[in-house]
Amino acid sequence: MRSQLQTPYAPGVIAGALGGILIDAYLLVTVVAVAHRTTVAGFYQFVASSAIGRAAYGEPQAVLLGIALHASVSIAWGLGFAYIATRTPQIVARPLTSGIVYGIVVMLAMQLVEVAANVYTLPDTFTLVNSLVAHTIFFGIPIAYVVARRLGTPS
Questions:
Q1: Mean pLDDT of 123-145
Q2: Number of neighbours of residue 138 by Cβ within 10 angstroms
Q3: N or C: which end of the chain has fewer CB within 10 A?
Q4: Domain map of the chain by residue range?
Q5: What is the distance between the alpha carbons of residues 102 and 50, in angstroms, rounded to a whole number?
């Protein structure tokens, strides 16, 4: 029988889904409701643009694609963290530090996706700081704590 520490799938999916919900909620509040930099549709069209390019902004259906992409990518990142955590017990033992580092890694990786998709624009200070807060506090840390809680402490 496999121990819970050896099966990262459920913890990864749960952590990724929660992280995706939290980061979206934070970004929708800060970018849409407070800063008025885009609309909810524009936010998800931007996400979709990483897959279909700038054409996403002219397609209302791209909103659904953006939501599906963001959910899928968030869950994939959660699974990735859980997988790494099963091989590196120190990650489970230090979820705050691990979550901050993972959030930064995710943010940088997603910036590379934007560059590869040719939708990257140099961020201003607000966007950079907001993205850093979103990816560390509202994505990386929750994923790390959920995975640590679900996998348990290493023996």
A1: 97
A2: 22
A3: N
A4: 7-150
A5: 21
